[in-house]
## 1
Amino acid sequence: MKALRDVFGDTLVALGWTNPNLVVLDADLANSTKADKFAMAYPDRFLQMGIAEQNFVGVAVGLASVGFVPWLSTFTVFFTHRAIDPIRMLVAQTHANVKIGAAYSGLLTGLTGKTHQDVQDIAIMRAMPEMTVLAPADAIEGEAIIRWATDFQGPVYLRLARDASPNVFDESYSFVPGKTILLREGSDVLIISTGPQSVRCLKAAELLGDQGVSAGVLHLPSIKPVNKDEIVSASEKAKLVVTVEEHTIYGGLGGLVAEILSEASPRKVVRFGIEDRWGESAPNDFLLDLFQMSPQRLSERIKALI
């Protein structure tokens, strides 16, 4: 079990040995995002841009235009709220080969509080043309996605949680953009999630199984693109579909699933997530219970629905 921010730093260091064009730009948070690991390994390919998020997006686009592969690193909230205009105009509209390493995503941001918690980023980024949106569940998937994104030609938004998450994949894992992953089969309810929340959903499904409820879990590491047929097929095998996300219920994963099923296989979709409110500064376990996304709270909510 390894924190995704450490996976970010370590994987970029490993890739730097074979890719001399790989560069990392940081907005004064390298110690938190672990981009400082790349800085120590390759000081001549690390650019500390200071608290200037809009500017470092523009610099990255310039570097990409002459053949470099730039990874941007800062907190999620600063990408989607401070730097969204240059991301839209300079990265997405020009299809620039820029990779966005969005650290400290969601609620669990290490006591940073509502000012630094961004639970709107999926809605913002998946609505942006030309943008690929990815959210790994664990360290193994995180490394695979970072490697894939580095080789991919075009903009990538990578949603990275701060802390460690138990591994659900092994070393045989291979990332395929758009592909969904059925972590557990079930006929009473299908739980659809993304990022590390999928791991908590898997634990909730196990708790439901102990109570006689057959709960499946479908993990979406690739939010955009996504395989719509796989979501429809998995949903049609369950009596109820529940989406769970460490994100607002407006416009995020729940919205994505509801859009797909309303067009291809109309059925009831219950969306669990952040319900039109700000986060709080508190330990992870407290926040998961407060927003009813811990395995225990999820199992209770789903059991009540059934």
## 2
Amino acid sequence: MIEGLGPCYCPSIEDKVVKFAHREAHQVFLEPEGFHSEELYVAGLSTSLPEEIQKMFFRTVPGLENVRILRPGYAIEYDYVKPYQLKLTLELKDYPGLFLAGQVNGTSGYEEAAGQGLVAGINAALKVFNKDPFIVKRSDGYLGVLIDDLVNKDLKEPYRLLTSRAEYRLLLRQDNADLRLTEKGRALGLVDDQRWEIFQKKQKQLNELFELWQTTTFSPTSTDIQEILLRLGSSPLKSGVKAEDLLKRPEIHPEHLFGVLPALKDYDQTVLEEATTQIKYQGYIKRQQEEVERFIKMEEKELPTDIDYSQIRGLSNEAKQRLQEVRPVNVGQASRISGVNPTDISVLLLYLEQRRRVTANAGRNT
């Protein structure tokens, strides 16, 4: 029985035997350590049991009867800072100027640590120069999802960033990362002139493409377009159709239209792919952008720093405790804190409105 809590994504063999006692077997993978190496890493048998025990059970695996262990398995335990003590900039609330990043914040994996290091480093530099902090929203990128989750949610195990944690993952695609974040990087002084020029060229080409597709109409009398549609097994045109609407058909891609729209050949392939993605998923993207707008409105409802949540009537005891611990900066952040439910948010909004009216009346009376 192991007391330490490891990540659920790569459990040790002793964890698997206890948690999945109903299983008759567990998969084991022998992975070469290198192209020219005779060493093998045994994936699926990670363990912290004594070395002698490791030798015994390794040799029960078919093919490993005479195995020699070069480096026995081991486990690591580490303490971490409860992330609700951090601001969204990764600065400690009680120790201004001290920024934390990586496993100390309760995460696992290299990518999570690297992402936090980037945000913490940027904000440390901005603080030195007395500039506004840099905060990535959940709707801006996975860095925003990572930090927002760390600060607002209780950690039961080392945190790993998964795409399923993002509500707006249709907008957070790898192909549009430059469109989402390059301008922010430029404003921070982290994007050089060459990269900025490439980005501006891409934006210009995208705008041109969208305009071209919106202003080009194909007629049902055009034999060229009808032949293309017939060849692709697509329905023939019965009336005029914009190129934009034609591209929404799953079987149609820009290269199919090179013959009838030769201007498309002038654009980079990556730009064509990005524009096509935006056109084909336009309805879904629009719906998610509307969700983001509602999210931003909640983010814009700031919470005064002097609120004593323990004195707000109607809040659940758990919500009072968690809100007092995290001290959210806005209503949106408050709504994502573990233990704070929609009813608590309604009470909080009512409290803010009452507070606003009291302040306004006091101002009129003076």
